[in-house]
Request: fold
Amino acid sequence: MTVPVKILSVLTGLSLAGSVQARIWTNDRGATVVAVLVAVRDAEVDLKLQDGRIVAVPKNVFSGADQAYILEWVKSGGTLPDTDVGAENPPAQGASGGRYVPLEPNWDAPWPERAAAPGYLLVKAVQETDELSVYETDHFVIESPGKLPETERMALARRFETILSALAAVPMNLAVARRPSRKYLVRVCFQEEDFNKAPGLRNGRLKFSPTSFTALLLRDKKGKPLKLDAVDPRFAVTHWVAQSMDLEHWLVDGFSAYMAFLPMEKEAMVFRKLPGRLAAMLPRAVRTGREPLPALADLLARDSVHSAAGHGLPSKGDASRYWADLLWTVYWCHLEGDGKAERLRRYLEAWDAEDVNGAHAVLLDGKAPEEVEREMAAAWKKLGVKLKFSPSAPPAANGKKTAEK
Reply:
């Protein structure tokens, strides 16, 4: 029996596993499913789920890589084997039926000094035409409106894989980075009008969805390739990882800004001397205390469900919040205690255990938020930064307190 369904409900609500010919299917909003292709019609395909049901899904909602696979599958008469590494070893089934990836926590790992791309980087050409080219790495799908020269696609793949390697190495137990359950979509644009039509939040020549994909404009108005430095995706990929793990708003934004702030040396991200570098680059108004930062109590009370508007670079009106998120993240990573992020790790352990109140208690260490602000300001003062904080908003203005997850 073929059951017609909506693609979003299929890709987000069902637990699926694969056989040797299963693949990870991705829709245009980034949702994924592991299933076996069993039939193709003019406008639909049939996918076989783990429980044996066959669901009919419109072809036009799939990513370019999936649509290319469908065409090749038809040409092969239904005998085309899948080459999707992620589907060969699908995540194990959880007790509730949800997809679950067991990983040993890395809370006790040392903080990295630098993180580079994997020594061996495979970029697979799934399809190469003048209309649509699709390339895949271990963790990313790259779609381009034309062929990408080998040097350009390798550089692009290396940039994205380096970001994920760096996130996996950070001892914050970022399971989404350490073993992604799906591939992240990278859309390349050659024309500015195509880039403008792409959905997502804009930051220069880059757009991103908070949870699923990044779009990049890789050509100038004359059609010449741009250097990758002009389209830095570190904030976007970090935001995907952090928000996919349902971290608090301030840490999603602060850690995304932290990763985007890291210097690059020979295609490696360097974690050394972060506090001093940030202190030297702060806007004068923040560095001298002329522009106060939001109160810590307000930062922790901020709703973790957010729009991600204005991310990547601080816009006017959002600058103090941007710098507050980044300054607190760097403080708890490198300046608080012995500089090994012990408190941040314990906070994340409590958050991972769904103990919101306990997590905040770890950060405050039994102190009033104002006292923790003074300790943080004293640490930054040693680096020549004079921070000031706004008074916390009255309880009624704070809105609802952070609820238990």
